[in-house]
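Hypothesis: this fold can be encoded by more than one sequence.
Test: take the structure tokens below, design a sequence, compare later.
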């Protein structure tokens, strides 16, 4: 009996030691990569070289330095001023690059939008804060809990739509911060697959047709919902070819042009592209060779490299495209210079 107890004790002790070692070695950031062999790496040098005939835009102004160490989101107001969320502040710039104002925050903002009444809605980790144009805080909404990671906000009339990547859900509020309903939870009866979000990129916007567009990044597609939560349709496909979305989770961010076309950003293999309102590929705004120094080298589908380049994007009424380069923390402006396809 004593021998059995000793044997069981040794096994339990060994299991505890193994568990502790595994915990110490656990990579919670993804910076060490996937640990997969070289056969799981793919060479994206050829993919980074996009046919020049597909690139219909060019950089049309000197890049605007945000001055941030860590930038996350970009938005424009009706006057064309540029709002950047980064570090622990919101900075507002004229398109000339002059700093117009700065709103200091108590924590890091991950996303923002400017409503038609010029109120600024900011996602700060797990809750929404609302500011006036003079930088005065007007409201701070309830926390969504420790798991919440707010990554996108859109305002449409009396509705505020908030993407929570941590809880993998879209929340619909009224403008006072009262929660109305949740959108996108997995529901077989309503044919809703649920959002697949492997990394903290989860964007949304309201189109002029009145439908909410939400990226389902793990499924590499953009889905269209009613505000009541009905999934109407979706578009997008997994492909490393220029027409599709590659990597673990793309597109990371998007914006909607005046003609209801979509401007999408991809990370890993960094590309900014345009799709028509039905989701058909139209052209490239800029690829790796235009957006990052050295173009591209070797990137792992599942490793640290797949997290590189979570750029954000905004557009103005003239069709100019404002790309927030989160690697260099600058804003780059692109203008169409060639006829479309």
């Amino acid at each position: 009996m004593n021998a059995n107890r000793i044997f069981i004790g040794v096994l339990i002790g060994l299991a505890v030691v193994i568990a502790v070692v595994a915990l110490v070695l656990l990579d919670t950031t993804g910076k060490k990569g996937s640990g997969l062999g070289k056969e799981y790496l793919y060479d994206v040098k050829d993919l980074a070289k996009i046919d020049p005939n597909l690139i219909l835009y060019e950089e049309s102004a000197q890049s605007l330095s945000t001055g941030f160490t860590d930038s996350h989101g970009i938005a424009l107001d009706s006057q064309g001023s540029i709002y950047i969320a980064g570090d622990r502040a919101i900075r507002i710039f004229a398109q000339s690059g002059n700093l117009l104002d700065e709103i200091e925050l108590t924590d890091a903002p991950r996303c923002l939008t400017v409503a038609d009444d010029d109120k600024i809605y900011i996602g700060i980790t797990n809750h929404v804060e609302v500011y006036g144009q003079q930088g005065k805080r007007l409201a701070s909404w309830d926390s969504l809990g420790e798991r919440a990671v707010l990554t996108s906000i859109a305002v449409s009339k009396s509705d505020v739509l908030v993407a929570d990547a941590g809880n993998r859900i879209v929340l619909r509020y009224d403008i006072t911060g009262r929660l109305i309903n949740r959108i996108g939870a997995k529901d077989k009866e309503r044919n809703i697959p649920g959002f697949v979000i492997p990394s903290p990129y989860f964007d949304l916007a309201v189109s002029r047709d009145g439908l909410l567009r939400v990226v389902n990044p793990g499924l590499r597609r953009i889905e269209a919902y009613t505000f009541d939560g009905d999934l109407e349709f979706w578009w997008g496909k997994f492909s490393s070819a220029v027409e599709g979305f590659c990597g673990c989770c793309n597109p990371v961010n998007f914006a909607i042009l005046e003609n209801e076309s979509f401007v999408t950003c991809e990370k890993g293999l960094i590309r900014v592209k345009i799709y028509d309102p039905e989701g058909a590929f139209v052209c490239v705004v800029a690829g790796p060779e235009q957006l990052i120094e050295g173009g591209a080298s070797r990137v792992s589908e599942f490793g640290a490299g797949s997290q590189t380049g979570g750029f954000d994007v905004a557009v103005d009424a003239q069709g100019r495209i404002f790309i927030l380069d989160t690697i260099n923390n600058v804003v780059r402006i692109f203008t169409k210079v060639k006829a479309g396809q």
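Residues 2-25 form the longest helix (24 residues). Confidence is low (pLDDT under 50) at residues 15-42, 297-306.
Hypothesis status: open.
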